[in-house]
Amino acid sequence: MAVARKFSDQLDAFCQMAARMADLHNAEAILFLTERPTEWDKLQAAVGDHALIVAADSEDVLAGSEDAQFDTVVLSVPDLPVYEQLTEALLEAVADEHLAPGAPVVAVYSGFESDTIDSLSLIRLGEHLGRLTIRDLKQLGAKVPTETLKSVVDLAVSIGREGREGKPVGTLMVVGDHRKTLTFCKPMGFDPVRGYPVSERMLSDGKVREGVKEIAQMDGAFVVSAKGTVVAACQHVSAPPAELSISKGLGARHWAAAEITRATSAVAVAVSESNGTVRVFLNGEVVLRIEPFRRAMKWKDFENEPPPATPAEKERDKDKDKEKDKEKEPEKAE
Ligand SMILES: Nc1ncnc2c1ncn2[C@@H]1O[C@H](COP(=O)(O)OP(=O)(O)OP(=O)(O)O)[C@@H](O)[C@H]1O
């Protein structure tokens, strides 16, 4: 378990300043991003009546805060740079309805030196960053429990955003009405989840979610039950063609998503490999579209070798050599 941080005078001073700043700017909450647990009651007291959100990389860090009044957020992507951790924490807080999209927030965090609370920021989470809220999902009116839908959409968003090992990844997940969905599916080669007990295929399990990210690199779709069990993977989905009004620019994966949701009461969640956009389909239509706010960085080797010369450059070099030779000639004559 992470070693607790003493609630030092410096920490107390930062929290009090955050509270004053929150008063001044009508902030909706104070966000405390921490690498270690602390004396939670003192933290709560230091920010006064302001709503407090505590964010951390793992449940461990939040240990002992179960009875506290404040909301907590566990970041889904560990080891991000601090500014991205702040954004992620705010997005999660919006998704869990602890914060309204666009709300001003004062953040207290280690910005300069790790493990030292040394920074204070006033952040206004732009509407453009506001992600899907649970309310949006409920409004879809899908016959899939919101919890299952939320975990599939969260997973799809992180696949679209992170890709795998620096490469973009696209995939398709068909959720709910799985028995009927399976009648429209054919395995594309081996099904990697086949033969595993149900307890090892639950999306609520972090290891299963990691496994899904790995399998997502392969061709085909996942079929997920309404309860959140991965029923099949690497499936070719082919429902009868229907009159659909989705964009002609979308390819086979997205058409398959639209068609299966017309033929069944399932919800399909497609991640586009080309840009990481997540689209949620219901009854043959796109009902939600979520743009990735950050995609995996692609590092390229620095090119030390100059590129080979073009024919025109070679000609120019020859002319230069001739001129140099001419310049040298008079010297020879002397
Ligand atoms: N009917 C289908 N069922 C399951 N997977 C499919 C289906 N059709 C295509 N795919 C998967 O989608 C991949 C991309 O296909 P395509 O480029 O036509 O789709 P797309 O809709 O343009 O998606 P993207 O935006 O990711 O490129 C295929 O390589 C295949 O793995």
CATH topology of the largest domain: YojJ-like (1
H/E element order: HEHEEHEEHHEHEHEEHEEEH
Question: In terms of per-residue confidence, which ranges show pLDDT below 50 for 5 or more consecutive residues?
Answer: 127-131, 294-307
Query: What is the CATH superfamily classification of the largest domain?
Result: DNA integrity scanning protein, DisA, N-terminal domain
CA-based shape: flat
Mean pLDDT: 83
Placed side by side, the strands forming the largest sheet appear as 7-9-8-6-10-11-12
Identify the CATH architecture of the largest domain: 3-Layer(aba) Sandwich
Distance between the termini: 86 Å
- In terms of quaternary structure, the protein is single chain
The overall strand count is 12
Beta strand %? 15-25%
Helix amount:
25-40%
Describe what you observe in this structure.
- The chain folds into two domains: 9-128, 3-Layer(aba) Sandwich (Pyruvate Kinase, Chain: A, domain 1), CATH 3.40.1380.20; 137-290, DNA integrity scanning protein, DisA, N-terminal domain (YojJ-like (1), CATH 3.40.1700.
- It has a seven-stranded mixed sheet, sandwiched between helices. Strands 3-2-1-4-5 form a five-stranded mixed sheet, sandwiched between helices.
- The radius of gyration is 27 Å and the shape is flat.
- It has helices spanning 9-24, 40-46, 82-95, 134-139, 146-162, 178-182, 206-215, 252-263, 311-333, and strands at residues 29-33, 52-56, 71-74, 104-109, 119-124, 171-175, 185-187, 221-224, 230-237, 267-271, 278-282, 285-290.
- It contains nine helices and twelve strands.
- With 334 residues, the protein is an alpha/beta fold.
- Residues 170, 172, 219-221, 236-238, 250-254, 256, 272-274 line the site of adenosine-5'-triphosphate (ATP).
